[in-house]
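User
New here, help please:
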Amino acid sequence: MLYTIHFYDNADANPDIRPRFMQQHLSFLNENKAVIRAAGPLREADGAVKSGLWLVDVETVDQAWALVKADPFWPTGLRDTIEIKHWAQVFADGQALV
């Protein structure tokens, strides 16, 4: 099943967290590339990064949460709010999937 994971950053987090842990975070994403289909920041109109999005292919929401908690960013305090939602893909590569 496909899930979206929307991360909202903690506005009070140390601004050095993201660059300091980025390489570990990217390594984690690579290690989990079989289930993390896409990942990246969501930029504000001014270019600031205050949130991010993953698209994951796992069987349960609990497995999605396990990925979130295994990410090196998780214990740093960078993440504030996390929304995990089941996503039903109905269109891809120019084709209807339903």
User: Anything to note?
Assistant: The radius of gyration is 14 Å.
